[in-house]
Structure formats: C-alpha cells, structure tokens
Amino acid sequence: MAEDRPKRIAIIAGHGGLDEAYPPLILATSAVAMEMEAAIFFTFYGLFIVHKERKNRLKVAPVGNAAMPVPVPNIIGILPGMTNMATGMMKNWMKKANTASIDDLLEMCIEFDVRLISCQMSMDVMGIKKEDLIDGIETAGAASFLEYAMDADITLYM
Amino acid sequence: MADITPDEVLDCSGMSCPMPVLKTKKAVDKLQPGQVLKMIATDPGSQPDMEAWTKKTGHELLQSEKDGDKFVFFIKKVG
Fold it and tell me: How far is the first Cα of chain B from the last one, in angstroms, to the nearest whole number?
C-alpha cells in the first residue's frame, strides 16, 4: 500500500529567526527533488517566513543563543543593535557561502508544488491576514495538517 | 576514464546546498530517457548529495569526480 504513493514529508515551521527559516525550506524543496511530497505548516512566528513584509527582514537572536561565534553574554545581547549585529554576521557568512535567499527558496517551493499551509489560529492571534502572506499559500487548521501528516514518512517540527 | 559526451551541461559552481540538487532535478526532468547531464559544482556536499539523489530517484550516476576545486558529475536519465 505504502509503495503506491510517493514518500512524504510534513514539516511544522514554528520559528521566525533567519537561521530558523532555512531548514524547513531547504528540506521541503530537496524532498521534492527526491521525488517526495512535501508540506510546510507555518505557525506562530514561523508565519514570518511567508509574510510579504517580514520575510526579507528575518533576524538572528543574540539573547539566549549559546552558539554565538563570539560569546555574547545575554546582558550584552539585550543592548540595542545587538540583534542587528548577530543578523549581520549571519548574513555575511551566508553571502560568503553563496547561500540561496529566502525568496529563492520560496520560489522553488512554489515551482516544486511544496504545499504551504498557514495556521489560521496563529494568524488570528497575530493579526496576520491572508493577503499579508505570499501567494500560493493555503490557510488551514491543525486537523488539515494532521490529515496530511498522518500519511507522512517523515514529520519534523522545526 | 572514458570520455562521456553529455547532452546538457549545468554549471552550479558557487552555489550551496540545496541549489545544486534542485537545479539538477530541474535539468534532468527536461532530458529524454538515456540522455546525460554533466553537472559541475564547487559545493563539497554535492558529492554525497548527488549519490543520495541518484540512489533515490533511480537516475544513473555514471561518473563522479573531483577536478581541482570542482566536482563533476555525469548523470544518465533513467525511465
């Protein structure tokens, strides 16, 4: 029975940091390249990954980030400008590594028919409207995601 | 190794994960079965990734070699 359909990955993107936006998009697009089906359910801050205004302004949090390359005490991390510094550092690394942009990866998601689902409840909580989000996204609730994820071979919360 | 004449060439030099795999998938989709794609990448991760990708998709990795700082792959479309 399982052999009759393609393998499937179901991902929940629940965070909106720059470094947190990449893994779901990379895994979903790569999955389709490997002839799998993929869906990403964007919930809470994860919605910013597909938010027209916010997706190109995602940031890296210096506070509570124990992996900062230059150890930054949280008390310093809270100072104005530190988030931009941490974000700038990450963007600089990405530029050097020639990493694809969030827009590039979202375009690939659309082209590869990755199912993009925004969480209705999070949108209501955060005052985000359907038109604030990129085209090609559907809006649904937990049951819709579960219905898809129930038949998934890989399920990830990121 | 025997020279392989590719039907298409895809240069992914400078690109990082996941772009070489995504572009390769798109390029192979456009080929006819039996045709060969030559893909060039500089991402060292492309070597294990192309092996994994061909293993799962069933396309044939005819050749995978390192040429200086470049990785060169010949992939034959199957089916």
Answer: 25
Average pLDDT over residues B15-42: 97
pLDDT tens string B38-60: 999 999 999 999 999 999 999 99
In this prediction, what percent of chain A has a pLDDT beyond 70? 98
Please give the Cα distance from A137 to A113 (Å, whole number): 11
DSSP state of A156: E
Structural domain includes residue A152 = yes
**Residues B71 and B47: beta-carbon distance below 8 Å:** yes
Q: Residue B47 belongs to what domain range?
A: 8-76
Alpha carbon distance B71, B50 (integer Å) = 10
Find the domain containing A49 and state its range.
6-60+103-157
Q: Largest Cα–Cα distance in chain B?
A: 33
ipTM of the complex: 0.92
Overall number of domains in chain A: 1
Q: Which residues of B touch A33 (CB under 8 A)?
A: 18, 21-22, 24-25, 53
Whether residue A35 and residue B15 make contact (CB cut-off 8 A), yes or no, is: no
Whether B17 sits among the annotated catalytic residues: the reply is: yes
Reported as a single tens digit per residue, the pLDDT across A58-100 is: 999 999 888 887 788 899 999 999 999 999 999 999 999 999 9
C-alpha A118/C-alpha A44 separation (Å) is: 9
Q: Domain holding B55: CATH number?
A: 3.30.110.40
Chain B residues inside the 8 Å CB shell of A108: 22
